[in-house]
Structure formats: C-alpha cells, structure tokens
Amino acid sequence: MNSPVGAHRSTGSGADSLGYVIFITAAAAMGGFLFGYDSSVINGAVEAIRDRYDIGSATLAQVVAIALIGCAIGAAIAGRIADRIGRIWVMRMAAALFTVSAIGSALPFALWDLAMWRVLGGIGIGMASVIGPAYIAEVSPPAYRGRLASFQQAAIVLGIAISQLVNFAILKMADGNQRGHIGGLEAWQWMLGVMVIPATLYGLFSFAIPESPRYLISIGRIDRAKKVLEEVEGDNPDLDARVAEIQQAMHREHKASFRDLLGSKFGFLPVVWIGIGLSMFQQLVGINVVFYYSATLWQSVGIDPSSSFFYSFTTSIINIVGTVIAMVLVDRIGRKPLALIGSSGMAISLALEAWAFSAKHGSGDSVALPHLQGVVALVSAHVFVLFFAMSWGVVVWVLLGEMFPNRLRAAALGVAASAQWIANWAITASFPSLADWNLSGTYVIYAAFAVLSIPFVLKWVPETKGKTLEEMG
Q: Is residue 382 within 8 Å of 314, Cβ to Cβ?
C-alpha cells in the first residue's frame, strides 16, 4: 500500500513541489532505466551466445530480438491493466517480471529457455515503456511536462551506458573473454544476471511514490487525488477547480478500447496513425543496432573485442549528452523543431557510415576498413547517436505521452508502443543477415528512413508544447 503523500514532505512553495515531482518522476523512470539496461546488456553477450550454442546469424538474431515480441505484448496490455488496477501496480508487475527474467537469463538450461526468459523480461519492458510516460505526463505540471517526460529517455540512455560499463568491467574480470569463468558462471551470464539489482530497486521505488491523480479521481478517491495534486502542483489556489477540470474531461470520455481507435477509411484515427508513425520512424533509422550489435559491428570491420566494447561505451556516453541537450531544449524550442534537426543530422551521419562501410575489405579474421573510412565510420556513428538522442529519442516519448486525447490515451499509447516494439524487432532480427549481405546497403536503408521522417514531421506531427492534457481533447 502506498504511504500517504503527506508523509513524503509538507506542502509549501512551488519550488518544493517541483523538487517532489522530480523525485517521483525519477522513480517512475526507473522502468526506463531497466528498459535501456536490458536492451543494451545483450550487446556484451551476443558473440558468447553464438559460440556457446553454435548458432548462425539468423538464429542468433532471433534470440536477441525475441525479447521485443514480449515488449510488444507488454506494451499492448499495460494501458488496460493500468486503467483497472492503477499505474503503481503495473510498475510492480513490470519489476517482478524484470527480476525473474534476469535470474532465468543468467542461468539458462538451453537456448530455448534463454529465449523464454528474454520474452518474459520483454513483457516487463513493454509494460514499463507505456506506464512510465503515461504516469509522468499525469503527475507533471504543464509548464515542465516536456522536461519531466524526457526523464524516461534520460533513464533509458543511462541504463544503456551503465550496462555497457558493467559489461566492460565483467569482461575485464574475465580477462577479455566473454565466456571466461567468474565464480562458476561465464562472463556473459553475469552480464545478464546483474539486472536483478536495478529491477529490485524499481520495485522498491514503486512503494515510495503516489498513485496518479487522474486514476484516483477515476475510482472516486477525490480527497486522495487532491492531496497528490497539492503535492505536485504546489501553490495551486483552487484544488477543487483543478479536480473539477479533470472530472469534466473524464466525464466526456469512457474506457478506451481498440475499437475506439478506429474511425477512418484507413482503419485507425489519424492521431493514432501519427503515433504509430512516430514510433516506427524512431526505430527504422536503426538506432538499436548500435545498442544491440555495436560490439559485433566493430569487430566485423576489424576492431579488436576490447576496443569494440570501449566504443560501445563511448556511444552510450554520447547518448547521455544528447539526451541532456534534448531535456534542455524540448520545452524551449518545441517538439517539432527538435525532431527535424535530429532527422537531418541522422540522415547525413548514416549516409557517411554507409559510404565508409562500402570500403570494407578482406574476410574472416582479416576484415578491415581503410584508415580514413574507419575514422569516418567511428565519428559518424557517434554523431548519429548524438542527433538521435537530442531529438527523436526524447521527442517521441514526450509526444506519445501528450498528443492523444484523454479518452484515447491509454489504448492509443499501447498501440503506438506496440508498433515501436514491432519495428524494433524487425530491425534487430534483420540486421545480422542484412550485414552479411551488404553492410553499406543496410545503412543506406536506415538513412532513407531518416530522410522520410522529415516530411512526415512537417506535414502530420502536432506541436504539443505548453498545452495541458485536457487541451488535447
């Protein structure tokens, strides 16, 4: 049971309220940290899994990508569950799934149960990917919502960076061998098992934050909702009016279902298609290739394993830097301008990577890039991550938390997030085979999607900067 809000701090100034909102936002964003950690930790285990189970690129890709099927399932069901039992309980369910998955993935009997544990963890990731942005949007004051919503992406990139740092440390302990033994387990098993620590913390944090005021109002707990609103909105002169505003918006709506998202000759309502498009473009530029396969990628063009892990870590640091830039700019210049800047930068850097990889020569252990192309590939990869992190990495999560009308938000978020995971799966599952076919051509495809995202944003994406959730309809 959640502790009373008043026990966390006394009411007071707007500054105190903002500090409290930052705390509960950061706690909710721990799901994003696990999302990032689990998404990237497999990077350090890919080659060890290939070697231990003696599998080819296609099978390996399915083991890496299968967690994303679980993510799509988790994202699809999270909104409805949250409307029934509350946002906090969904967080706890996700934490439990993360914990069990971490233990199972570290101690697999065979390839099939490793895949099963990854699917289970994926369901937790998918649930966290939906409930985090929704909860943060519902507790954030409108003036700060963009920056607070970006905590989700900040937590994701921090999770990615920490996972790479932990992987690097474990690899060093195993003398650079991903299958080296530490305390009776292989290094890659420790990499997957360490996630039990942040998963446990996520569960504990869920007991320290209040339920969403909108959910509390929906189940008739008005006094409790007022206390939460007082805590998160600070010097609000009329809590009754604020509750009435939320109630009025809720009276115009009903529990959203999949059917409610339909309404045009193209199937979904236009705003739902925009959410799906944003989610898919975020993945189709190939960003998760960097986090799932970067160590393998750099080794495939002649870089030794230790250096490949180092470059994976440096891209994670760049990811954090870009996310901080986005957090500063998202409420200042708006969502659309930031997305357009990112699309342009990603298109150029991906095109340069495609050019550099076209010079790849040799085969087997003697594969390499010429010096100039090698430098261009490394720099362009980091620039690509920077432009993604400072734009689409944050903007998409902010928009998905804001752009849907209240009556559709939970269901529409679930559909959009599911589309994101399906696109993520398609990119992740196809990359090893595409890279074997033509690494340069693969990056041309990613660059083309970055270019196509520009007219999509210009024509269809709404600007939500400074609007309340109730103003979204």
A: yes
What is the C-alpha separation between 235 and 12, in angstroms, rounded?
7
- As a whole number of angstroms, the distance between CA 310 and CA 47 comes to 16
Residue 7 burial (CB count, 10 A) = 9
Other residues' Cβ atoms within 10 Å of the Cβ of residue 247: 15
| Domain that residue 361 falls in | 9-209+252-472
Does residue 286 come out as left (phi exceeding 0), alpha (psi in the -120 to 50 range) or beta?
Answer: left
Residue 449 lies in a domain: yes
pLDDT for position 327: 82
For the chain, the first-to-last Cα distance in angstroms comes to 33
Instruction: Yes or no: say if 52 and 383 are a contact pair by the CB < 8 Å rule.
Output: no
Q: Write b or e for each residue in 184-208: b if 16 or more Cβ atoms lie within 10 A of its Cβ, otherwise e.
A: eebbbbbbbbbbbebbeebbebbee
Characterize the bridge pairing of strands 181-182 and 185-186: antiparallel
Q: What are phi and psi of 185, to 5 degrees?
A: -115, 155
* Residue 1 belongs to a domain: no
pLDDT for the residue 83: 85
Q: Which residues of the chain have pLDDT under 50?
A: 1-13
- What local confidence, expressed as pLDDT, does residue 463 receive? 79
- Provide the domain count of the chain: 1
The answer to whether position 46 is within a domain reads: yes
Element (H, E) at 268: strand 267-268
Instruction: Provide the CB-side half-sphere exposure for 354 (13 A, CA).
Output: 18
Which of 283, 294, 270, 220 has the alpha carbon at shortest distance from 473?
A: 270
Q: Is the CB of residue 29 less than 8 Å from the CB of residue 155?
A: yes
Residue 103 Cα distances to 33, 53, 356, 440, angstroms? 18, 19, 40, 38
Residue 38's CATH number: 1.20.1250.20
In a domain, 238, yes or no: no
